[in-house]
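subagent[fold] <- orchestrator: predict structure for attached chain, return tokens only, no commentary.
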Amino acid sequence: MTFTEAEIAYLAAGRLGRLATVQPDGTLQVSPVGFGYNAELGTIDIGGRAMSHSRKYRNVAANGRVAFVVDDLPSTDPWTVRCLEIRGVGEAIEAPEDSRANAPGPIIRVRPRRIISFGVDPGNPAAGKRDVTDPRG
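subagent[fold] -> orchestrator:
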């Protein structure tokens, strides 16, 4: 399994994340995006209006380097932060047949390679880091 049960529940409750991509000149671009967790593939599917015309979609198509973050601040007293960072490989898919994105049409699919999680699992609030192997080989 790519994500833990607690991480899957956290992703299911989230509506908005931030996607970082690498532009052709090497600079980074970060965009707020809607997303869906694809349980069958263990991926994050990102959709949106005119996705295939966006800079982030073109960045992913050009080099596939991505990081995706979902986080929140459920309390300020005490200060409590939750975060799930996913570093991996992005795919720009023009006509997905198995999308779990929040919008129809082209998507960016994030295949995790490293997951950093903290505050997401109430039983284990410390940060956890792990590498993920692509089940496709």
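orchestrator: received. Logging for downstream: The domain at 5-128 is CATH 2.30.110.10 (Pnp Oxidase; Chain A). The mean pLDDT is 91.
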